[in-house]
Amino acid sequence: MTEPNPRVDPPMTADEAVTLTAFLDYHRSTLALKCEGLTDDQLRLRSVPPSNLSLLGLVRHMAEVEQYWFRSVLLGQEITAGHFWTKENEDGDFDDIDTADVAADFATWHAEVEAARRAAAGLPLDTVGKKLRRGEPVTLRWILTHMIEEYARHNGHADLLRESVDGATGE
To answer: How far apart (Å, rounded) are the C-alpha atoms in residues 9 and 162?
Structure first.
């Protein structure tokens, strides 16, 4: 699977917007790196029971998260169904991977990353999203920070998943 963007270290001296977007892109690329070189079956491998975590599930989950925060919350687009979840199975991003089309799922993630970049491009960090979170407004700054946290947490999971698949470790 190809990376959504080559992994580049975030700059040490930059303004806040450049720093936040660079860290987010770094973490997006880290997830892609954790999946690189694996077969479809390896990407589907689950962690330890009863967990349903897999590298493919993480990619699918992050596609949903990108869509939600940037398209739904920031831009206010009405999203009635996710790419991988339904009202009947809200964990479909993690659960329904056994026969998933891996290439299509990665393409969906890449498309949502690009849509997120377009949604945020040129907006001031103080831009308030069009949807509330728990009844509170959120800014683009908050969304970017939350997305960094979301990827960082799941990249920790990806580290362990990748090591269990083929022993590969690293950042």
So the answer is: 21
Q: For position 151, which CATH number holds?
A: 1.20.120.450
Q: Let me know: does 141 contact 16? Beta carbons within 8 Å.
A: yes
pLDDT at 158: 96
Instruction: Give the pLDDT mean for 86-107.
Output: 94
Q: The pTM is what? A: 0.93
> Is residue 74 assigned to a domain?
yes
Q: What is the mean pLDDT of the chain?
A: 93
* Residue corresponding to tokens 């190809």: 2
Beta-carbon contacts of 37 under 8 Å, excluding residues fewer than 6 positions away, are none
Select from 10, 126, 105, 107 the least CA-distant residue to 56.
105
State the CB neighbour count (10 A cutoff) for residue 147.
23
Please, which residues have CB within 8 angstroms of residue 103's CB and are 6 or more apart in sequence?
1
- CA atoms of 106 and 100, how far apart (whole Å): 11
- The DSSP secondary-structure symbol of 99 reads T
